[in-house]
Amino acid sequence: MAVSGMGPQGQRQGSPGMAVLAGFGVAVAGSVVWGLVAYATKYQFSLLAVVLGFAVGAAVFRAGGHNRNTRLALASAALAVFGCALGSLLAEMMTLRGHGVPLGLIMSHLDVVLQAYPSAVGGLGLFFWVIAALYGYRNALGMPAWGRGRRRPAPQASGPYPGFGAGPQPPVAGAEPGPPPVTGFGPAQPPPVTGFDPAPPAAPETPAP
Predict the structure, then answer these.
(1) What is the largest CA-CA distance in the chain?
(2) CA dist., res. 129 & res. 175, Å (int)
(3) Which of 34, 105, 110, 136 ranks highest by number of CB atoms within 10 Å?
(4) Residues paired with 12 in a beta bridge
(5) What mean pLDDT is reported for the chain?
(6) DSSP helix/strand/coil, 12
(7) Are 36 and 22 in contact, with CB atoms under 8 Å apart?
């Protein structure tokens, strides 16, 4: 019986277009937040790039129906970098606006703003952009964050109980050999006595008359 909203393999049906649109919306919203934070604090926090990439990847994965799509993951990484770049540009423009430069003058001389853009980003900013792209890619594929993945359980020997059914272990160098393995259980037999003849049975005593 088919379940509504599920694919033939049990996956949720998601729209790639809605996934890209959701990632784009989160990227633009994150860039605006980035610009406002930079304008209020007079600093550009590169750590916001990681948060932005994480949010973009999560939005793409959720809107895409929680399906692992490599193309959507690549689009998520590109949207994360786009959001970072737009956030740095808005932060630079807001900083100029805070210094009393009219917005019309900034827009009319946008080429001058773009010339100073690489120095405003810096090498550390580009490094965080790469990390944001990686987080956007991983989150869009539904991968756990680094250090939060589940550990695989240790393999156990086959058998009805743990430890039974395991093959023989190789000997350890320098260790004394242990007792031979017990292959079966049966009724205990007394060890044979050698060198002695069995004594004759004692005659029964005759009662006195």
Answers:
(1) 147
(2) 57
(3) 136
(4) 6
(5) 74
(6) strand
(7) no
Helix 117-140, helix 47-63: angle, nearest 10: 40
Structure tokens at 2: 């088919």
DSSP assignment of 81-126 equals HHHHHHHHHHHHHHHHHHTT--HHHHHHTHHHHHHSHHHHHHHHHH
Question: Could you give the angle at the alpha carbon of 54 between the alpha carbons of 141 and 34, nearest 5°?
Answer: 150
How many C-beta atoms surround the C-beta of residue 157 within 10 A? 11
Q: In the chain, what are the domain boundaries?
A: 16-140
Residue of 48, 27, 35, 52 whose CA lies nearest to 95: 35
At 34 the three-state DSSP class reads helix
Q: How far is CA 203 from CA 80, 160, 198, 208, in A?
A: 107, 57, 15, 15
Query: 22-55, pLDDT tens digit by residue?
Result: 999 999 999 999 888 888 887 777 788 889 999 9
Structure-token pair, residue 182: 């017990």
- pTM (two decimals): 0.61
